[in-house]
Amino acid sequence: MSERVYNFSAGPAVMPITVLEKIQEHMLCLPGVGASIMEISHRSEAFKEILASAQSNLRSLLAIPDDYEVLFIQGGSRLQFSMIPMNLLSPEQPSADYLITGAWGKHSLNEANKHGDMKTVWSGQDTNFDRLPSSGDSGGKWRPTPNAAYLHYTSNETIQGVQFKDVPDTGDTPLVCDMSSDFLHRPVDVSKYGLIYACAQKNAGPAGVTVVIVRKDLIADVSEDLPGYLRYQNHAAADSMMNTPPTFGIYVLKLITDWLQEDIGGLAKMHELNGAQAKLLYDVLDANSEFYEGHAQPECRSLMNVTFRLPSKELTQKFLAEAASKELKSLAGHRSVGGIRASIYNAMPTSGVECLRDFMEDFCKQNS
Ligand SMILES: Cc1ncc(COP(=O)(O)O)c(C=O)c1O
């Protein structure tokens, strides 16, 4: 296959074509360096400049205040599930709150429970994670636990396709957010958070690098007995280079954040584009609700992962096969939700979403 397909993968996911072209152009020789990004020392001036630009791009896109560190860590978001309780719990605050709105929140809670007795302050399990606590009365109410070290939530549940529109209010309790699957798709008020983390392989780059944005005071006094790599303060003190960092991933993240700033025009613009694209698909679900059943309650639908089911398993298989024959790929839903998941991250071109929309309309006409 030599032509690019429309790739609706949930991650690693589609990247901007101009970024891929730049990587290709500089694959053999970074300008002025004489070698590729993968062949130069992380201590070289060239790499240090790339890392500094990646950090400053993130700082300017998200308006990150100076009292926050921007760290690049390996181990994916899953390692954060452990590093967060290891660094933020203390003998004085041995427990934290978790809002469980889908599969990833559950995974993060399971890891955290190895370090203390976490409190589930809200869970959407009973309705198979089709809603959020902020979604009106149907979502239920929750309260932060006094003396919780932090409250953890997942802003966008990649598998179920539910996404918070607002930031949960925790008062003085530091808010910790897994933004893995909606990072950099909208402006965020970083000052409302204690810690934000996101693996790169959806909106920010290739697999292998995870961004952690953390308030400096939260990590300053953490015990030095933690394994060195798992202590945030060590990454901060070494400017994310306590060991060899994922140089290629950081380089691509720099190119993607350049693209967001220069080609897209910032995160407000990105959010507008994402909203318009997601609407194309949700409109088809709403207009054909006897055929397509959206998983998420309408008020918490994700702009990143559109999840829906068809009337039968046979029709789902037919949908996937016919879509694939039209170069619409990686649309199968996760087995816990079934049906279809169209991941339409930042780099998905509008033409891809339009093509899927047209296909969905035709498929419904022909099969209902
Ligand atoms: C919301 C969310 N959190 C965490 C993860 C896990 O990320 P990783 O595979 O980098 O550990 C994913 C991966 O898809 C995710 O979507």
Task: Summarize the structure in words.
Pyridoxal 5'-phosphate binds at residues 104, 158, 178, 201, 243-244. Homodimer. It comes from Adhaeretor mobilis. Its cofactor is pyridoxal 5'-phosphate. Its main location: cytoplasm. By secondary structure, the protein is of the alpha/beta class. It folds into two domains: 18-263, Type I PLP-dependent aspartate aminotransferase-like (Major domain) (Aspartate Aminotransferase, domain 2); 265-366, Aspartate Aminotransferase, domain 1. It is built from ten helices and 14 strands. It has helices spanning 17-25, 45-62, 76-88, 103-112, 216-219, 232-237, 247-264, 267-287, 313-325, 350-367, and strands at residues 6-7, 68-73, 97-100, 119-123, 151-154, 156-157, 162-163, 175-178, 195-199, 210-215, 293-294, 305-309, 328-329, 340-343. The strands form four sheets. A seven-stranded mixed sheet has the order 2-10-9-8-5-3-4, with helices on both faces. Strand 3 (97-100), helix 4 and strand 4 form a beta-alpha-beta unit. Helix 1 (17-25) packs across helix 7 (247-264), helix 2 (45-62) crosses helix 7 (247-264) and helix 3 (76-88) packs across helix 4. The radius of gyration is 21 Å and the shape is globular. The structure holds pyridoxal-5'-phosphate.
